[in-house]
Amino acid sequence: MSLPPLKRQKLDKPVDESSASEEDAEEADFSASDSESDSDDHIQDLQPQKSRQTKKRKIRATVPSAFGATLQSLLNTDAPSALPLSLKPSVTRKRNDEKLELRAKKVLQVERKEKEDKGRITDVIGGWGGESERALRKVAQRGVVKLFNVIQQSQASASAAVEETKAARGSGKPSLPAPVIPDAKTKKGKKDNVLGRGREVGVEKDEFFDMIRDLNRLIMDYLVIEGYKSAAEEFCQEAHLTPPVDFDSIESRMNIRDALQRGDVEDAIARVNDLNPEILDTNPQLYFHLQQQKLIEFIRHGRIAEALQFAQDELAPRGEESPEFLSELERTMALLAFDSSPVAPTGIAELLSPAQRMKTAGEVNAAILDSLSQGKEVKLVQLLKLMHWGETMLEERAEFPRVTL
What we know:
Elements (H helix, E strand, L loop, with lengths): L16 H16 L7 H7 L17 H13 L12 H30 L12 H39 L20 E3 L7 E3 L2 H22 L2 H10 L8 H15 L3 H11 L2 H4 L2 H17 L3 H18 L1 H11 L1 H4 L7 H4 L4 H18 L7 H17 L10
Antiparallel strand pairs: 1-2
Helix pairs in contact: 8-9, 8-16, 11-12, 11-13, 11-16, 12-13
């Protein structure tokens, strides 16, 4: 029994003409052998055969010398800079990011330049700048100066006109007559009674001596508080006054004041403690001002390291307790920034002036007087302040001649 002819399977790759002729010959042989018996060998022969091109080639081993030569030639080849030889894709991404960033920077520069040029005035006048520009500036400056002078002159003339008008019509306030000094020969022992509307009353002998004693006490009060020991002793003997205080305390106060005025704060603190240790213990503000003056003296003499250490150890803890102390400490430490510069603010530069030493000495003197149950301020100064206040209040209601000292 003969088998029907089998269809040949199509190969993936095209075959050449020699293989096609061989297939035709095999089909002819197969048709001629219809009468042959069906056997396993014959079936095996009828299976499709692979073409020669589909056979795998045998891979031969590369000679080491040839491999080395090939590798060396690849290494010696100059690779283009635009194409880096790298197997990592991150290198390419990084390079692309750098290119994008560079391009973005260029775009931003162009936009910035366009914005700057947008508000810039172009030179529409030929030859603008140089001598012509300087000449125009000089003309403008002269014009401004002349205008300022005219305005100032007009303001001065207007003020003068107002003063003349005011003087011509008066202030509208009642005028008080000037005080008349009585004749010493005809009106001896009498005084003008202002409260009695000009009526004169006699001054008795006892009243006159009381007035003299009051004046002497005012003078003695001034000498004691201001610390003029020798003058106070002599005046006390001449005026036959009882010493109001121990004159030795005056000398102690003056020694403390002299120590502060020459910048020896440590000696002043020691003398205050010898006189009365409770003065600084009960007055923290005075003690802080003494420590502040000590810090100022450190800065004045250029002892910066000691000043910083002293401020950190002594003044900083007290600054945390009081905002007022902290503000004074900050103002004092600002001296380190200006270093005695002439451009320093007035509130800072005045710390290095002699007036600051006198101010601290005055505070210490007032504290000592308070501890001795004495007045802190001179009574004569208080009377002068009261007189000035009275004249100011009276000037609002009437015109009168002021007392000049």
